[in-house]
Design goal:
There is one protein chain. This protein is mostly helical. Helices cover 72% and strands 0% of the residues. The protein has a domain at 1-84: NADH-ubiquinone/plastoquinone oxidoreductase chain 6, subunit NuoJ (Four Helix Bundle (Hemerythrin (Met), subunit A), Up-down Bundle), CATH 1.20.120.
């Protein structure tokens, strides 16, 4: 009962941080909201008993990526106001695709996390076996790599949209 209440509070903090990233009017506030979201995810890992993943989350993402974003924001000579553009044609398509993926996950797993047997949930060996298993998660791991590549190409396109190619 108490564990459920703690999880609810931490997950609400994570959702609030994610909403802050999306709806922030200033870039600096968006980065701080991202830090809140990433630290909340690390706290969720701790409640699940995956201390290794929590430490990696704090060191790599909350420590490295957010600090890099903060330096980039503070050292650039741009106005720190975010310019919101109206929704384009890709926003509804991506929202529908995200909804389909969430429903597929819920239908497949019943919204229950399944741990690996024989090792602690946050153990380094079990994390490596789960991620790099050729039969279980090899395809999703590769698809995430392709998704990140597409996001990087899209970010470069948006950053250099006004320049001539």
């Amino acid at each position: 009962m108490i564990q459920d209440a703690v999880f609810l509070v931490i997950s609400l903090c994570a959702v609030a941080g994610a909403a802050g990233v999306v709806f922030a009017q200033r870039l600096f506030h968006a980065v701080l909201s991202l830090a809140l979201c990433l630290l909340s995810v690390a706290a969720i890992y701790i409640t699940l008993g995956a201390e290794f993943l929590a430490v990696i989350q704090v060191l790599v993402y909350a420590g490295g990526v957010v600090v890099l974003f903060l330096f980039a924001v503070m050292l650039t000579k741009s106005d720190l106001q975010l310019k919101r553009e109206p929704l384009d044609t890709f926003a509804p398509v991506s929202a529908v695709l995200f909804g389909v993926l969430v429903l597929f996950y819920i239908a497949r797993t019943g919204f229950v996390a399944h741990g690996e047997r024989g090792a602690a949930p946050g153990d380094v060996a079990s994390v490596g076996q789960v991620i790099f298993s050729p039969t279980k998660y090899a395809l999703p791991f590769e698809l995430v790599g392709i998704l990140l590549l597409a996001a990087m190409v899209g970010a470069i396109y948006l950053a250099r949209r006004d320049e001539r190619w």
